[in-house]
């Protein structure tokens, strides 16, 4: 079953303006399915070894094939997994500049594209988009909260009802990722050490990262452990969330980032956890889920807003803070279905200290929104997107 994606209209709009697209996203988020809905003139999957070797040996082959189309319009060329043959970027730039063709390029790893100084990222010539696992608006009628926290929201997982089959698919995803993205790209010297790191990073996702402790646990230098986190971010497996630290404050604030896995089902299998989290762990997963959803919602916002967290080592902390339109929106996440005014005490503190923060939210499991205090509203988790419709 194919699920309509909210990004489809944006892709069509961009192509209608005669612009080209670089569509990034982790594996199995539906990039190939999405671009194959487009009416293209050439489609090439560069993850296939035969295609990859052909264009690596002679990138100009692509230009010759486009010229052979002999059409009266600007042809649309789809290049899937473009990071596999980065030599094609210079050719694609030239063809875009000459208006010879229009392109949709996809990639499941930004590491080679962003770490290799010789790779041409086509600045100003393509519009970069990101395809994530399904967002709430795409899964609201298909998955319960428990399903989303335990199995995540990759399209194939959401449409698979058998729980054992879900586990098999997620386990295969983790092992395939390690094999193809880590071993083949040779980004780590000791794969076994990285596997152990992945398990620890997945287990501690959503917490303030303690790189020193993880480095000690797996027997590597702290710089190596930090490099492993960078690999997860570059390969689109993790999101980095920095702490909110005002320029002038007397508080002893956290200064280390948090890392969120792009999908909670993948996180669970990487952490080797079962399907039944206890109450405390359920609450932590719920917090991560909301953080991931906020990041996904904000990707396409023209103001390029960011998500932070705020934590005072002496007590107060805020799960998520959105910095948008010169305003701060503090958000607390609690798995309760009976929110109380006492649940808002840290939000009250933050609102009193930060002039840019005018209102705050508590996201929980209630059927409809309710006022808890001045400028603080509790809302159902399904309505998290409503926060961004009137941010100021």
**Strand/helix succession:** HEHEHHEHEHEHHHHHHHEEHHEEEHEEE
CATH topology of the largest domain: Arc Repressor Mutant, subunit A
Distance between the termini: 39 Å
Strand content: 15-25%
Number of strands: 13
- Mean model confidence by pLDDT: 89
Helix content: 25-40%
Unreliable spans: 115-119
Rg from Cα = 22 Å
Give the tally of structural domains. 3
The coarse overall form would be globular
CATH architecture level-2 label of the largest domain: Orthogonal Bundle
- Class from helix and strand fractions: alpha/beta
Determine the number of helices (DSSP H or I, runs of at least 4 residues).
16
* Main sheet properties: 6 strands, mixed
* CATH class designation of the largest domain: Mainly Alpha
Neighbour order of strands in the largest sheet: 8-9-10-11-13-12
What does the model show?
- It is a single chain.
- The protein has helices spanning 8-16, 31-35, 49-57, 60-67, 88-97, 111-115, 136-139, 145-151, 155-158, 163-183, 191-203, 211-218, 222-234, 264-270, 279-298, 345-353, and strands at 20-24, 42-45, 76-80, 102-107, 126-130, 238-241, 258-261, 306-311, 317-324, 327-333, 360-364, 370-373, 376-380.
- The chain is an alpha/beta fold.
- It has three domains: 8-130, Rossmann fold, CATH 3.40.50.300; 136-278, Arc Repressor Mutant, subunit A, CATH 1.10.10; 288-389, Trna Endonuclease, Chain: A, domain 1.
- The strands form three sheets. Strands 8-9-10-11-13-12 form a six-stranded mixed sheet, sandwiched between helices. Strands 2-3-4-1-5 form a five-stranded parallel sheet, with helices on both faces. A two-stranded antiparallel sheet has the order 6-7.
- A hairpin with a 5-residue loop joins β8 (306-311) and β9 (317-324).
- It is globular and about 70 Å long.
């Amino acid at each position: 079953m194919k699920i309509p994606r909210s990004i489809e209209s944006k892709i069509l709009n961009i192509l209608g303006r005669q612009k080209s697209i670089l569509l990034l996203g982790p594996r199995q988020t539906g990039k190939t399915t999405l671009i194959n809905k487009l009416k293209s003139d050439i489609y090439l999957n560069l993850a296939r070894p035969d295609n990859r070797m052909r264009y690596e040996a002679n990138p100009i082959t692509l230009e010759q094939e486009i010229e052979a189309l002999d059409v009266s319009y600007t042809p649309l060329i789809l290049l899937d997994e473009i990071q596999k043959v980065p030599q094609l970027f210079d050719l694609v730039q030239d063809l875009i500049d000459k208006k010879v063709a229009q392109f949709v390029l996809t990639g499941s790893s930004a590491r080679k594209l962003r770490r290799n100084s010789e790779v041409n990222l086509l600045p100003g010539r393509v519009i970069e988009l990101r395809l994530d696992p399904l967002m709430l608006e795409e899964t609201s009628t298909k998955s319960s909260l428990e399903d989303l926290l335990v199995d995540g929201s990759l399209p194939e997982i959401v449409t698979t009802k058998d729980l054992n089959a879900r586990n098999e698919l997620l386990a295969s995803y983790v092992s395939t990722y390690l094999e193809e993205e880590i071993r083949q790209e040779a980004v780590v010297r000791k794969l076994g050490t990285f596997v152990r790191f992945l398990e620890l990073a997945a287990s501690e996702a959503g917490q303030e990262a303690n790189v020193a402790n993880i480095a000690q646990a797996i027997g590597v230098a702290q710089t190596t452990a930090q490099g492993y986190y960078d690999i997860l971010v570059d390969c689109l497996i993790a999101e980095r969330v920095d702490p909110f630290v005002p320029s002038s404050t007397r508080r002893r604030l956290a200064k280390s980032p948090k890392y969120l896995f792009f999908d909670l089902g993948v996180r669970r299998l990487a952490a080797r956890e079962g399907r039944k989290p206890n109450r405390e762990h359920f609450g932590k997963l719920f917090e991560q889920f909301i953080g991931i959803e906020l990041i996904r919602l904000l990707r396409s916002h023209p103001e390029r807003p960011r998500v932070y967290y705020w934590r005072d080592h002496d007590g107060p902390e805020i799960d998520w803070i959105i910095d948008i339109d010169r305003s701060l929106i503090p958000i607390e996440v609690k798995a309760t279905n009976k929110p109380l005014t006492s649940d808002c005490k840290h939000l009250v503190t933050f609102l009193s200290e930060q002039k840019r923060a005018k209102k705050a939210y508590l996201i929980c499991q209630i059927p409809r929104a309710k006022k808890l205090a001045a400028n603080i509203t509790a809302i159902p988790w399904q309505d998290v997107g409503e926060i961004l419709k009137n941010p100021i």
